[in-house]
Amino acid sequence: MMLSADDLISKPEGKTLEFKRDLSSPKPLMKTLVAFANSAGGMIVLGVTDDRQVIGVDQPLDEEERLCNLIADTISPRLVPNVEMVTFRDKTLLVIEVYPSGQRPHWLKAEGTDSGVYVRLGSSNRQADRELIAELRRSVEGTGFDEMVMPDISVDDLDIPAAQLLFGGSRVLDEKSLITLKLLRQYQGRLVPTKGAVLLFGKERLMHFPDAWIQCGRFFGTEKIHIFDHIEIDQPLPKAVDEVMLFLKKHAFRGADLSEIRRKDVWSIPIGILREVIINALVHADYSQRGAPVRVVFLDNRIEIENPGLLLPGLTIEDMKQGTSRIRNTVIARVFRELHLIEQWGTGVRRMFKEAAELGLPEPQIAETGMRVRFTIPLPEKILVQPATVEVEAQVEAQVEAQVEIHILAACASAPLSSAEIAAALGHKQLSGNLRKALPRLRADGLLEYTIPEKPNSRLQKYRLTDKGRVLLTTEHMDDEDS
Questions:
Q1: What pLDDT, in 10s, does the model give residues 319-371?
Q2: Structural domain harbouring 310
Q3: What is the DSSP string of 132-182?
């Protein structure tokens, strides 16, 4: 036991701690032990009332024996927790410590394997459904849902050309690459798509996974009652990130004249933090759940982003804040990493908390609620609904693109830069999102040109400002001075 008795008594009940008066009602205690073993482990302190009065355990040796017999008779597979007698002042407590089990799922024998499996949700126990039970089994086997094969379809059901556009020249999506990325796997002597491949690039993605979409809503006020604007995003997952960000930006500019958006950062929301949370939600969503899309809720004082699926077994919210990461969807995560949507494994949550502190913003909140994980991002100031934003959505999108383009042209004004150098100049660690889309547009418009046009995929390739681009940049600079 890592904590002293004083430390235990002072802590609130939660995902990994519960207090019990005695063994007079053993079934709730057994449910908690099962839930702890199936989730992130935890401790039960026996001899403490609901109002945190320490009454101790009479005849602790006898109660310990009774407890061990109850566990053996009630729970399957066999569970062997660590039971200690701890003295608190003049009272003796029994502390039962359960570790995340490598034999999960555990269940109550009397309720059976379908109905007797429980997981821990906050300070309560929740009965696991069929999908969650399957995930508990997969987590022990080390197999992600998105790694599973779909033998009834073929590679022709994947939109490989669209996927190749996203990868650009960084990787050629030939058969070898598709296997390496686990988009294709061997099944009975032939290559078939994985569930991750269909979720990412399936031509009929929503037919196979009808809940793999994103629901975005802007509400009036601070309660989710009256909705003002909403969209349903069913783009392939890598493209969905920018679509969600566009929706948030549409409702987040500070009432500035739209022409100012081209040159200034006028967003009143923490763009970097929100992008991290959206990517986290898409990578860690439990796509086996039904009726549970990823949801993005924009309120006057906060933005909530939630994905289906509780935290994976062995992981707590405190672990996440400390940088511990366990990936639910390894295929999706690998592709996001290759597309530079993810920078480094396991750093996203820590980075968003660090950025919030640097910006002087309230700390983001993470909670497990209703079999979902919810991130709440408080806003630095209230943003009231602006009806005009509905009519100017297309203009806002165009201005966002124009803003990125001007920043790229300015970065290339002094000397030609590679794509990585452009990203660095604009404060990005990798080329991704709007930056990746803007470079081909600038070349097509004759504002940038290759330094090695005969070898477009050369590793030495750089982008050079054209005369046309320099004229545009000079015009923008003069406009800035006039304003």
A1: 888 888 888 999 999 999 998 888 666 667 888 898 899 888 899 999 998 88
A2: 214-378
A3: HHHHHHHHHHT--GGGSB-TTS-GGGB-HHHHHHHHTTS----HHHHHHTT
Strand blocks (E) in 6-151: 17-20, 42-46, 75-76, 82-88, 91-98, 107-108, 118-121, 124-127
Domain assignment present for residue 91? The answer is yes
- Exposure letters 395-419 (e unless 16+ CB within 10 A, then b): ebeebbbbbbbbbbbbbbeeebbeb
CA distance 457 to 49: 69
**Exposed / middle / buried, residue 369 (Cβ in 10 Å: 0-12, 13-18, 19+):** exposed
**Residues 199 and 218 placed together within one structural domain of the fold:** no
The rounded distance, in Å, linking the Cα atoms of 92 and 282 is 47
Give the bridge partners for 97, in sequence order.
43, 82
Hey, is 51 helix, strand or coil? coil
Two tokens at 359? 């910006």
List, in order, residues 6 or more apart from 140 with CB less than 8 Å away: 102, 103, 104
pTM of the model: 0.77
